[in-house]
């Protein structure tokens, strides 16, 4: 039975560096000498693909190497379940996680890698004020606990980011870069990330995303009219923000939007339609590079369809036929959008043909497609009234939280992102959750189309100070709720109220309106931290490998994280030999955390677990976990392991 310690890879978030090295070994084994990379050999193997120039194009700033290292450093933390803060804990599939999003993103790597369809974030805009994301390379978990007042420290270490410090852009990039690196791993191959940003950092954000996702994955820099009146503190009144959109790969396929009712202005016996000119109006295409799309189409002026348009043909039917070529207004040779095979496949002789012709004012003819398409691609300018920032404040006001957040994003904006980028059963994420608009928008969209989208939100429990004018209302609101004064409490309350309101407005909707709350904490597994002044006590405490202030549920969910299982996976409990045994993921993980397992209890416990495993019949391998200190002696531990392995349960671990 292998004992898992705080140093084992299985009890940490993924070690990305080690994984990269192993992949490199598989591809280029000859580039390794004594377990180290020989870069001279590697460069030879890569041939002309190695960049040798000292000066090259790219985004560089002070601290970039350290920022990259932050993303690669495994986390030793865990997420502790908080059913008391949750809604519908037993049934919900939604997540609300309190913690530093850098550490949380690391912890989610095993369980959620390649599973998120849409990531939307609205990161802190670079206004020259302080940041509350002070990443500590040595021990970010402790740094987070100090920042949020959970342990004593030297005070809240908030990074100064004033423009005069010379680090105005540098600090922001150091904060964002490792988070973007980790976020990309969580996206599905057909996933998309959308980032709200303003003018101050949009250039740097684009370059950072180019590096993390690849320039070829850039989809759009959408301009959003966020303020109709405009901010007038500069010479030009600013009325916009940006939404920068990247895909993870070429597999992305965005949903189109429904057209407005007047988008199809004509009608025939089949239904509404619009007329689209068949000539390709793009000057980049013409007979010179599309010769197969340059050919005559013949208009039959005397043959009229039900709407009064003239029919067309690929052959001259009679002397009245009019030959039409795809020429532009200046007579230059263009090309058609369709080839002859596609035109032949159309019903040109039907009562309502797909292709028709109409005479222009100058006496010439245009050929048109009767387009019945009811959707259109998303445009790069969003000017809907529902997208202005004031609308977000109005929506919070309807929930009784109108003066709690500054400039919350409106629900309609995120619903547009969700509609555009997801299907009905997809997972969406926001790791700068703030006012919780993403969670609200996901369940609102589900209520509209009957979807089962899940959300995962992450928010730092940033303390609120009632002395600060900008935080006074929010801090007082937390006091009214009887909750700690921090932003994460506001996020959770918004989700509770949004779910309740959607239920009231949609009584027939049976979808998931709850969420599970987890809080970032240090691992449940005790690390070796000797007190040099009191070694006897340290040795005594180390006998129990698990922290004594943690619950069985805490340990179970750390196992889920570290073994790569979903945090909302069903957990079933059964009593075997008077011991509580937990079945997680239909037999993927079987856990017994009983504090005492006597020698006489070993056989009935082991055989009971074997019988339950056979009944569950899981498709893959099963891991069985016990509390290491529970066994009466090593003989009991060895016997239990032997019985389980005799029945095919080879992967037995202890904590």
- Taken as a percent bin, the fraction of beta residues is 15-25%
CATH C-level name of the largest domain: Alpha Beta
Helix-residue proportion: 25-40%
CATH overall fold name of the largest domain? Rossmann fold
The assigned CATH architecture of the largest domain is: 3-Layer(aba) Sandwich
- Number of strand elements: 27
What distance separates the N and C termini? 10 Å
CATH superfamily label of the largest domain: Vaccinia Virus protein VP39
Question: Structural class, from secondary structure content?
Answer: alpha/beta
Strand order of the largest sheet: 4-22-5-21-20-6-7-9-8-19
Radius of gyration: 31 Å
Basic shape: globular
In brief, what are we looking at here?
This protein has 655 residues and is an alpha/beta fold.
Give your account of this protein's structure:
There is one protein chain. By secondary structure, the protein is α/β, with parallel strands linked by helices. It folds into four domains: 71 residues, no CATH class; 324 residues, Rossmann fold (3-Layer(aba) Sandwich), CATH 3.40.50; 116 residues, no CATH class; 105 residues. The strands form six sheets. The chain has a ten-stranded mixed beta sheet with strand order 4-22-5-21-20-6-7-9-8-19, with helices on both faces. Strands 1-27-26-25-24-23 form a six-stranded mixed beta sheet, with helices on one face. Strands 11-12-17-16 form a four-stranded antiparallel beta sheet, with no helix packed on it. Helix 3 runs parallel beside helix 7, helix 4 packs parallel to helix 7 and helix 17 runs parallel beside helix 18. The longest helix has 19 residues. The radius of gyration is 31 Å and the shape is globular. About 2% of the residues have low confidence.
């Amino acid at each position: 039975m292998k004992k898992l310690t705080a140093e084992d890879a299985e009890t940490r978030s993924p070690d990305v560096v080690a994984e990269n090295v192993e992949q490199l070994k598989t591809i280029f084994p000859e580039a390794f000498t004594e377990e180290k990379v020989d870069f001279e050999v590697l460069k030879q193997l890569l041939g002309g693909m190695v960049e040798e120039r000292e000066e090259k194009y790219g985004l560089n700033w002070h601290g970039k190497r350290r920022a990259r290292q932050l993303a690669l450093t495994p986390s030793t933390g865990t997420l502790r379940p908080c059913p008391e803060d949750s809604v519908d804990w037993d049934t919900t599939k939604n997540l609300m996680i309190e913690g530093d999003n850098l550490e949380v993103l690391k912890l989610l790597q095993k369980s959620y890698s390649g599973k998120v369809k849409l990531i939307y974030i609205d990161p802190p805009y670079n206004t020259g004020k302080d940041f509350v994301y002070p990443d500590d390379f040595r021990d970010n978990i402790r740094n987070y606990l100090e920042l949020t007042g959970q342990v004593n420290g030297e005070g809240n270490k908030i990074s100064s980011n004033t423009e005069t410090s010379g680090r105005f852009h540098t600090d922001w990039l150091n904060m964002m870069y490792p988070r973007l690196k980790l976020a990309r791993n969580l996206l599905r191959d057909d996933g998309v990330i959308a980032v709200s940003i303003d003018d101050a950092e949009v250039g740097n954000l684009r370059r950072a995303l180019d590096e993390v996702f690849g320039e070829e994955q850039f989809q759009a820099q959408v301009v959003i009219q966020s303020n109709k009146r405009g901010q007038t503190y500069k010479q030009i009144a600013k009325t916009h923000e940006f939404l920068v959109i990247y895909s993870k790969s070429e597999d992305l396929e965005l949903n189109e939007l429904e057209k407005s009712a007047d988008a199809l202005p004509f009608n025939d016996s089949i239904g509404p339609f619009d007329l689209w000119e068949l000539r390709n109006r793009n000057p980049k295409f013409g007979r010179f590079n599309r010769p197969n799309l340059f050919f005559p189409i013949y208009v039959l002026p005397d043959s009229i369809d039900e709407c009064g348009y003239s029919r067309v043909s690929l052959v001259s039917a009679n002397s009245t036929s009019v030959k039409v070529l795809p020429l532009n207004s200046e007579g230059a040779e263009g090309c058609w959008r369709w080839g002859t095979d596609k035109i032949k496949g159309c019903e040109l002789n039907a009562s309502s043909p797909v292709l028709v012709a109409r005479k222009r004012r100058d006496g010439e003819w245009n050929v048109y497609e009767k387009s019945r398409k009811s959707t259109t691609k998303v445009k790069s300018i969003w000017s809907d009234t529902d997208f202005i920032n004031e609308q977000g404040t109005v929506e919070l006001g309807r929930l009784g939280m109108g003066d709690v957040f500054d400039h919350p994003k409106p629900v309609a904006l995120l619903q547009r992102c969700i509609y555009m980028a997801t299907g009905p059963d997809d997972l969406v994420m926001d790791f700068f959750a703030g006012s919780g608009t993403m969670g609200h928008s996901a369940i609102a969209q589900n209520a509209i189309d009957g979807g089962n989208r899940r959300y995962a939100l992450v928010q730092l429990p940033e303390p609120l100070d009632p002395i600060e004018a900008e935080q006074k209302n929010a801090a007082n609101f937390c006091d009214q709720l009887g909750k700690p004064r921090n932003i994460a409490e506001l996020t959770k309350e918004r989700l509770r109220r949004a779910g309740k309101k959607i239920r009231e407005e949609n009584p027939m909707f049976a979808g998931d309106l709850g969420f599970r709350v987890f809080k970032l904490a240090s691992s449940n597994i005790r690390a070796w931290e000797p007190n040099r002044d009191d070694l006897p006590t340290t040795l005594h405490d180390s006998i129990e490998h698990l922290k004594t202030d943690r619950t069985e549920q805490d340990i179970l969910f750390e196992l889920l994280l570290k073994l790569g299982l979903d945090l909302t996976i069903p957990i079933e409990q059964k009593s075997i030999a008077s011991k509580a045994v937990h079945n997680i993921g239909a037999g993927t993980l079987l856990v017994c955390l009983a504090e005492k397992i006597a020698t006489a209890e070993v056989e009935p416990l082991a055989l009971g677990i074997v019988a339950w495993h056979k009944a569950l019949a899981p498709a893959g391998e099963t891991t069985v976990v016990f509390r290491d200190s529970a066994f009466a002696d090593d003989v009991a531990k060895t016997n239990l392991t032997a019985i389980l392995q005799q029945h095919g349960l080879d992967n037995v671990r202890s904590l």
